[in-house]
Amino acid sequence: MAVPRDIARTSSANAVSYSLSVSPTATFHSPPSSSQGGFMAGSLAQRAAAAAKQLKPFSTEDVKILLLENVNQTGRDILKGQGYQVEFLKSSLPEDQLIEKIRDVHVIGIRSKTKLTAKVLQEAKNLLVIGCFCIGTNQVDLDYAAKHGIAVFNSPFANSRSVAELVIAEIITLARQLGDRSLEMHRGTWNKVSAKCWEIRGKTLGIVGYGHIGSQLSVLAEAMGMSVIYYDIVTLMAIGSARQVPTLDALLEEADFVSLHVPETPETKNLLSAKQFERMKDGSYLINASRGTVVDIPALIKAMRAGKVAGAALDVYPNEPAANGDYFVNDLNSWAEDLRGLSNLILTPHIGGSTEEAQRAIGVEVADALVRYINQGTTLASVNLPEVMMRSLTLEEPNHARIIYIHRNVPGVLRKVNEILAEHNVDKQISDSKGDVAYLMADISDVKTEDIKEIRDSLDSLNSRILTRVLY
Ligand SMILES: NC(=O)C1=CN([C@@H]2O[C@H](COP(=O)(O)OP(=O)(O)OC[C@H]3O[C@@H](n4cnc5c(N)ncnc54)[C@H](O)[C@@H]3O)[C@@H](O)[C@H]2O)C=CC1
Ligand SMILES: O=C(O)C(=O)COP(=O)(O)O
């Protein structure tokens, strides 16, 4: 919940004067107040956090947040409740407009469409943290972000069930050619057909990528009487009676339905191309609700025209329109018209995770993670920085400050940092690294106004520095 500014200011028992208050764009990146939201709700830790000291060297309304792609109301409410300035847009933005806007903000919230490339991020001089209000994080240059001290959070499984349910619906829809029958009726044609329409009971579903979504789908498919096989690059415990197969080819040769649930990576680009379609059973079906790059669409078009693939459902595309109402035409993807002309092909506008349940849950999860990061520097569940968390400072601990030092992971940094902190009592400290980047958090006591500036300047002068924040 939000802490009113006045209360936050006056309740702070620390002795640091507000003359140090600066814009959050400076290195005093600091929290307005502790999130009392969903994090560890009901736990001992949360009850302890209720007495947490409100860390706040600048006004909450100085924190500028840009939310794109219609982020759910739940997330917007949490962020606004903190007093942050929140700008909300329903669509994504073209690159030039995104670059203009991102220069000014400390936090950006996106979904799967907005591409935060190195080119865009290098303009984001004030950016502290990115919230992906979705599962996939392939749209963000995670490495560039980490190396520039920008944390990235997502929601790893809040929409998994929604995707799995959509796929179940599509399996039956394809098996019964429901899409075509419905279209014919809409056009006024009665066409009662049973040829090549099937029950799904007893058929084999091949799941490629047996993670959160793949394994959920496995449970649902078995409940409908299907046999499930799966292929994954790691060995994973089978759920129910499902069976892992050793290769993608083995899966393609055996499955009546193939459903893709892998992330977008260099290895999964065109995972299903001409050769793989050849391996599939005659008259089998393909479902792709993962990422558009995973299927070679021209090869799919050929396989469908040849009757090799009897039906397909596509929810994702290499290039997707920016907003509702935009056209899905050849300008965007050169094969769009060919695709639209095929029978028994379900085309959906990337709605796998688009349910009220999923979007509400994602809104809360990601907004809470952003608040925790802004307010306390906690990186728990970050996808690109080491996960670091320390218990909050409390009102019983006056004259304390929390130092956050994101730095290059090179030898000798801790010694230098601790030389700087040595004049104060380091009450608690934690440090962890991930690849080239390390994250250090220390709570120190006996800090005076001038100490804070000095500590910050000293840390900033180290050549290992990526970003320094001081919360007090
Ligand atoms: N259509 C939609 O609206 C949605 C699409 N997605 C997409 O679905 C993807 C999967 O989501 P989750 O199941 O949550 O991910 P996950 O990370 O839980 O599972 C992915 C699985 O794929 C496996 N994998 C990775 N590379 C592979 C390869 N080359 N071959 C075979 N297996 C491979 C991994 O080992 C892992 O088990 C996401 O990355 C996202 O791109 C996610 C949510 C909604
Ligand atoms: O969660 C994901 O990765 C998805 O693909 C769903 O994306 P969306 O939130 O609908 O843009």
UniProtKB/TrEMBL annotation:
SUPFAM superfamilies in alphabetical order: ACT-like, Formate/glycerate dehydrogenase catalytic domain-like, NAD(P)-binding Rossmann-fold domains
Protein family: Belongs to the D-isomer specific 2-hydroxyacid dehydrogenase family.
PROSITE patterns per the UniProt record, alphabetical: ACT, D_2_HYDROXYACID_DH_1, D_2_HYDROXYACID_DH_2, D_2_HYDROXYACID_DH_3
One Pfam family, short name: 2-Hacid_dh_C
Organism field: Staphylotrichum longicolle
PANTHER family named among the record's database cross-references: D-ISOMER SPECIFIC 2-HYDROXYACID DEHYDROGENASE FAMILY PROTEIN (AFU_ORTHOLOGUE AFUA_6G10090)
GO molecular function: 2-oxoglutarate reductase activity; NAD binding; phosphoglycerate dehydrogenase activity
Domain ACT: 402-472
One biological process term in Gene Ontology: L-serine biosynthetic process
The protein's Enzyme Commission number: 1.1.1.399, 1.1.1.95
Source lineage: Eukaryota, Fungi, Dikarya, Ascomycota, Pezizomycotina
UniProt keywords, alphabetically: Amino-acid biosynthesis, NAD, Oxidoreductase, Phosphoprotein, Serine biosynthesis
Reactions that this protein is recorded to catalyse: (R)-2-hydroxyglutarate + NAD(+) = 2-oxoglutarate + NADH + H(+); (2R)-3-phosphoglycerate + NAD(+) = 3-phosphooxypyruvate + NADH + H(+)
Name the UniProt record assigns to this protein: 2-oxoglutarate reductase
Keyword Transmembrane helix: no
Gene: SER3
